[in-house]
């Protein structure tokens, strides 16, 4: 009998704001009229930091469609992580807030006298939380394996004649979007998407810095252990307090990792996170080791679906157990609040699979664009190459972003789960240090994005007339530092709240 397990949705994200139901009626917008906010935007356009910049702004009343302020709203811009808003809104709308990913434990062949005369399969469907304890210890890799081992023991299996097979064929085999940069893909934020994403596709390298600056830093260990991975360590010791300046280079499915940069002087151990070379093989190998440790004999080495012939993949299988992810509203909240690229990419590829029958980045891009075009959004200038916004080739207009947010706000079943994951001004997340002692404190909610010299915000606020306003504000190629441009953007966003 198959065992079904649903982990409890452990998550605690503070949300302060007002959530209301709004009419679903669409109101056509007219010509942009000059407003006090737009006067401020016109003045901002003369700021020296924008001399070489491209930027856009759009704010709209979600109920009436009245334009509160607009500037360059049709200009296609790199959105950075604000693109996660498009990904999560599309996923919540297309799949539903209660959607759960399923990971299946299966076997081929038969069970005879305690011996599985076949292979043990783990078949994934893109669960970004599999084996990760960031949403609660019940989801940890240890608990996941204990659940599977208990299931196997209850089935009477004490020996596997075949092997453990990680079946990630639900998605295609491209871990990384084609438009990502080489310098990103070996690092933790470039972990990509896999149908058997596990431990958020991450591992940690622990370094011991040298006793002086520029001395070699020694690798102490990796956690978890990644079978077969080879580290070429060229990391050295940097100044005290200099933080993580390590870059990890490595291609998907290659076990060779090249480590450069520095870790700070004066600490006994320093952690740096990297992306797993092959999440499926890592899962199969780690599960194999756990089964052997528990006394279950396995005759052959672990493998993945990529190494099997079609005939072996298509063999009839029997279900042993189903592991369910937390619901999508919880996953979407972590995606936005913590800006987790891997979560966003798994949601993105899932949209391609569900909407177009193909779990690829190309199908996902077309599906998301078509989804919003069919809902009346003008998609000219919209170019989506990933779900997280890490690619510098993504483009979106602020009008498109704000109108997608407007559509979400007019659907209570969509808006409520969405805003669970938005940082609140002067209260939570990366907005906690912004908008102190302003009308926006505790009211404005937004997802931020940064990439090189890209800065953006997309979200909601409530103005003096108690109207819910959706807005998007993105700047590319500004001059100066991120803190400097953030302070200027903060002042303008606060003016949205001050409007009446």
What does this structure look like?
The structure is a single chain. 26% of the residues lie in helices and 23% in strands. Strand 21 and strand 22 form a beta hairpin. Helix 2 packs across helix 7 and helix 7 packs across helix 8. The longest helix is centred in the last third of the chain and has 17 residues. The chain is globular. It starts with a strand and ends with a helix. The N terminus is likely disordered.
Topology:
Layout: E1 3-5, H1 36-44, E2 54-61, E3 67-71, H2 83-95, E4 102-107, E5 110-112, E6 115-117, E7 120-123, H3 141-154, E8 159-160, E9 164-167, E10 202-208, E11 218-223, E12 230-233, E13 236-238, E14 245-249, E15 256-264, E16 270-275, H4 279-293, E17 297-298, E18 303-304, H5 310-313, E19 318-324, H6 328-337, H7 341-356, H8 361-373, H9 398-409, H10 412-419, E20 445-451, E21 454-462, E22 468-476, H11 482-498
Parallel strand pairs: 1-19, 6-8, 7-9, 8-17, 9-18, 12-15, 13-15
Antiparallel strand pairs: 2-3, 2-22, 4-7, 4-19, 5-6, 10-11, 10-16, 14-15, 20-21, 21-22
Notable traits:
five-stranded antiparallel β-sheet, 22 strands, alpha/beta, 11 helices, 500 residues, six-stranded mixed β-sheet, disordered N terminus
